[in-house]
Automatic annotation (TrEMBL):
Protein's UniProt name: M23 family metallopeptidase
UniProt domain M23ase beta-sheet core: residue ranges: 161-232
Transmembrane portions of the chain: none
One Pfam entry name: Peptidase_M23
Species in which this protein is naturally found: Streptomyces pyxinicus
Disordered, as annotated region: 252-272
Entries under InterPro entries matching the protein: Cell_wall_metabolism_enzyme, Dup_hybrid_motif, M23ase_b-sheet_dom
Superkingdom, taxonomy of origin: Bacteria
Amino acid sequence: MLTSLWKRHGLFLAAGALCVLVNGQGLGPLWFTGAALLVLGGLMRWGMWRNQRPPRGQSPVRVEVPVHGRWRALNGPGTKVPSHTHSHAQTYAIDLTRHPVEEPAPSFRWLWPLGRRPHHYPAFGSPVLAPGDGMVVATADRQRDHFCRTSLPGFLYLYLEGFVRSLGRPRHLWGNYVILELGKGVYAGFAHLKRGSLRVAVGDRVTAGQQLADCGNSGNSSEPHLHFQLMSGPDSETARGLPFTWRYRDDGGTEHEGVPEDNVCFTSPGSR
């Protein structure tokens, strides 16, 4: 019961902010109400974050790389933990952008263009694969693929947009997604998928390497990429992040077991 209430911390924060913004009477009842709601919402959010910190010393789960081709690791546990935040079970999450040698992605621009359509990026539409055998337990597929936020004004907008999205349900951050049960209390989450690209439905059983959907730019995303994470349950608001390991090959052809560090380009051993 208490957890269900804490999940709605975004409503308290939004209501508190609204009370403060529309208040025109100075330090009056409306202002103090808004301040109290902001404090309460912040405490609820902190409590959720604290409860989602995973225990130390967990053994990483062995999975397969969920993409084919040459990709780059960003915001991953190979560089720091938590890689994102404990919130939404993202302690060991990783972001992947596609970088084929023959098709470079658009570079960051300071002012112009403010954004680009997602199809200009090699990752957009690339297959997203199951990292192991499992069963689909949750999906979402209706959010649009928005323009990329690859300029300084675009990034400023992204941070404001990300805060607003964080006040809502997980789908507002994840965009289109798939959650896959891998067994033994392990669940894999795939976020920012392309709208209309899902090839699976809840209840489907899948095998390792099977295509689940296409990479997109939905949800809280600056450019087309795959957000991947393992967690201890299907609900990202209450689950804890789980560490993982996979085999990958660096640009020099050397195979590794683990998770690539940030900005390292790699391919899965089965990629051509």
